[in-house]
Design goal:
Helix 3 packs antiparallel against helix 6. The longest helix is centred in the first third of the chain and has 23 residues. The chain has a five-stranded antiparallel sheet with strand order 3-6-1-16-10. It has a five-stranded antiparallel sheet with strand order 4-5-2-14-15, with no helix packed on it. It is built from seven helices and 16 strands. It is of the alpha+beta class and 349 residues long.
């Protein structure tokens, strides 16, 4: 074997060894970008709020770069310890304006964890879409749920929910394998047509009684939703049993080397005194049942977290407390607007 071939073998073996070490550490490092194009506002007052990622015990955020022509401030959300970006132009936008936040993320797989400067007892109380007591007390009693068996609570939510976001009859989530014509869902035993009707009514009325708003009442009644609904349901049950539970929101990262991310993802954790916060990802477990054991008490490294908690008070926001903040929140002349285009991208490092 000549020197070049020998060198190639040595390099190849080193890469294998490094790969094994990397996998054993259960870590992932990638560049993440959060991009928005804010469209012109005909010179009407423009304001926007965007989440800002932070390091904690399970992720390291570094090399944060913000590119935009807009005036902005990085502000503290004090209730849960988050940060967010407030962008504005009181004279409005006379043309489209770009915003891009990029950062390096080093994320680790983890199980139970003690987080610094987190008071678990803040997470025993209800929020706007995550009430406690009442119907959840009845569910706990009728199904023999106890704080000493959180796996039972996790399984109860997973088995009672169905993943689906049907926005029309020709939408993939309206049809098999997500929902079926014969299926009945939730405590109200509704049909898939009913699920779609609730969505259509919410679109016209502004109601949160549909999937994707993290309404635990909707989740237990209707039983069809996305990650926000699964984990809000879990949180209402946990808090009703006097178990602190939190809501985490960010993005899932696929196993590919790089690519665009379709949308957000959320998960939850619950607190056991003396042991720390145990993570759960119930919607992912429901979509991938072979990992139902894994996602009870373990969270993979293929994600990045942006915000913790619910009901945020944001500077100069004219509406009520903000239920969820992950996509850009925009107001034009103090009225909520969808006048923007968003995209998210990652690349392994």
């Amino acid at each position: 074997m000549n020197f070049k071939n020998l060198l190639g073998v040595i390099i190849f073996l080193c890469l294998i060894i490094l790969g094994i070490i990397y996998n054993d550490n259960n870590q992932r490092k990638f560049k993440f970008s959060y991009s928005v194009i804010f469209h012109q506002t005909e010179n009407k007052k423009f304001e926007a709020w965007i989440p800002y990622p932070q390091s904690n015990q399970v992720q390291l955020i570094s090399n944060i770069i913000i590119n935009t022509e807009l005036i902005y401030e990085i502000l503290d959300e004090t209730k849960h310890g988050n940060k967010y970006i407030y962008l504005y132009n009181l004279n409005g936008l006379n043309q489209d304006v770009e915003f891009k936040l990029s950062c390096t993320v080093s994320r680790q797989e983890h199980s139970n964890m003690n987080y610094s400067k987190v008071d678990p007892y803040k997470y025993l109380y209800q929020s706007k879409e995550v009430p406690v007591g009442n119907v959840f007390s009845n569910i706990i009693i009728e199904n023999n749920l106890t704080p000493n068996n959180m796996r039972h609570v996790y399984d109860y939510v997973r088995e009672g929910m169905h993943y689906g976001k049907p926005i029309s009859r020709d939408n993939e989530y309206f049809n098999e394998p997500w929902l079926s014509q014969e299926g009945v869902y939730g405590m109200k035993q509704v049909s898939r047509d009913d699920v779609l009707t609730y969505y259509e009514k919410a679109q016209t009325s502004g109601s949160t009684y549909t999937f994707g708003n993290g309404s635990s009442l909707y989740a237990c009644d209707i039983g069809v939703g996305n990650c926000t609904d699964y984990h809000s349901y879990f949180m209402s049950l946990s808090r009703t049993m006097n178990i602190p539970a939190r809501f985490h929101m960010g993005f899932s990262i696929s196993n590919d080397i790089e690519g665009e991310i379709e949308g957000y993802h959320c998960w939850a954790d619950y607190y056991i005194s003396g042991e720390g916060w145990y993570p759960v990802d119930i919607s992912e477990a429901d979509k991938n049942p072979v990992k139902s054991d894994y996602f009870f008490g373990t969270i993979c490294q293929n994600r990045v977290e942006f915000m913790v908690g619910r009901d945020f008070n944001l500077k100069n926001y004219s509406g009520d407390k903000v239920n969820i903040l992950i996509y850009p929140l925009v107001e034009i002349e103090d009225n909520k607007s969808e006048n923007f285009t968003k995209s998210f991208y990652y690349k392994n490092l």
